[in-house]
Amino acid sequence: MTKYQKHTRLIALITVFITLTSCDVYSQPDKAEPSVIGYPYWGEYHKTQISDITNPDWKTEDIVVEGWDWSLPPSVKPSVKSNLCIARNFGLNPEKIKQLPDINFLSTPVISHWVKWRELEPTEGKINFKPLIENIKAAYEKGYGSIVRLHFSAIDFAPKWIKKYNIPIRKEHKKNPIKTNYDVSHPEFHKLYLKFIKALGKSGIPHMKEVRGLFLGYASPSNGDEGIGPYHEKNASANDTVPHVRERIDAWARACSGVEHKVFMGGLSNYGFSKGFGIRRGFVEMYLYHIPDKHIGQKLDDDGYLYVDESNPVIKNNLFHGEENEEYEEKWATDWRNFRFGHSTVSFPYRYFTANLRLLQMRCNYLLNNEFSLLPDMLAWVSLELGRTIEDAPDAWCFLRESYIKEGGGQPVKNFERWVYQRDSLGYETKPVAKVEHPIEMWMVQPGKYYDYVARRGHKIGFDVNDAFLASNKKFAVKISYIDMGIGKWSLVYNGEKGIEKRGIKCENTGKVKTATFLINGDFKNKTTPFDLELHGENGFEPTISFLRIVKI
């Protein structure tokens, strides 16, 4: 039982009466679930180039605005662990480096160098890292760090001279693979691979200050040496027992001695984690995948709330932890890409929004993004969120949502939370509302339930905030994004310096997303309310809440 499960059950035994007065009488909201047609809360599909993005302005007053609010105080700078990749260089092309755009929002931008083995060792025994080193340095002069991603396994990755070793072709688990790979476990291939990694270490590349990460992969039918061993990633312990996989990991550990934290794997390996290596997945556009996943600390409690296991080594040690949120070009809604995300781009801003929140919920510190953004203010915010721990987080938040996955026969997955926890209890019951249909049938979703709810509604909604976050501050901005449904009034209730305080909001039934900001001085140590932050509807009104964020000021 988690701390928050225990807390929820305790609250069910507590009765606290808080009197909220109002001089007006408001009409009751429509009790039916808010109707959502399409994706009305995220705007139309529009690409903003990276060079056109700036940080949203920070407001120093109580205010209600239309839309979402992703602002942070100007004092907030990127984490030293943050890596925002907004470009890839396929090969050793120096022109791509020259074309890197200027970055005008606070971030730690990086470029990923996708380099084939054959480009660095066209002649056996003559490995030339100089062009790669020059590109790394040129990118640094443009303000970019570098991710080094070397590819080995495919026939078109490996040098032509390797054919003389008669290495067999690897049998793939998928039909019609994109890539035809050599059997990387073959003794000759393995020996040549280890020799190359040893040379990589001697080149000095891993220890360059300009280098922020190095990819350690295996082989896959997809492009990019995905995985870490011959077994499916869910069977991480099996890969740990394979001698040639352990030897590959050991070779990287020797080559990157002292900077092991820069290495990230293309699949799960506890042996790799023990070396200090991190991990990168790459399909967060399918924002409900890896639920649950004990290997990266993703768990569900008995009530369906998604939470993070803080003792997980990836989380506890803040290892290199990456995702890719990049499949948003028009081509993903065409026959060329098998209509992967539907037959139009209309859902793309919603998916982009949800995937960004999921990768932050997973505590990622590396993100591969496009060279554009569908929600520019949000991307600027994401860049400041990457790599944060509770010790240095500028804000904490909760996205009130619900979906249904095959795991457990269609069990609900409630909320994406980052140190703010909404829980139902006696007197604080909520229901999921604002149904949004999925544009496709994601494989992990319960058949017949291809939809999300993107808000919760209740007469009282309670939120607890991580104690460590609250203990380091007393002044906060509370930002509440709500769907303006019904005519009525509701309030933020919290324990202030002079006891229980409230701040009120009127709903006008516009159907729009609005964000209310309240600047507060909280005394959460001596609170007398069941939750740290509570939202109370007045005269029977039930607010429809989507997102709550608390910011240190």
UniProtKB/TrEMBL annotation:
PROSITE patterns: PROKAR_LIPOPROTEIN. Keywords: Signal. It comes from the Bacteria. The keyword Lipid metabolism does not apply. Residues 1-27 form the signal peptide. The keyword Signal applies. Coiled coil: none annotated. InterPro entries: GH (IPR017853). This is Glycoside hydrolase family 42 N-terminal domain-containing protein. It comes from Marinilabilia rubra.
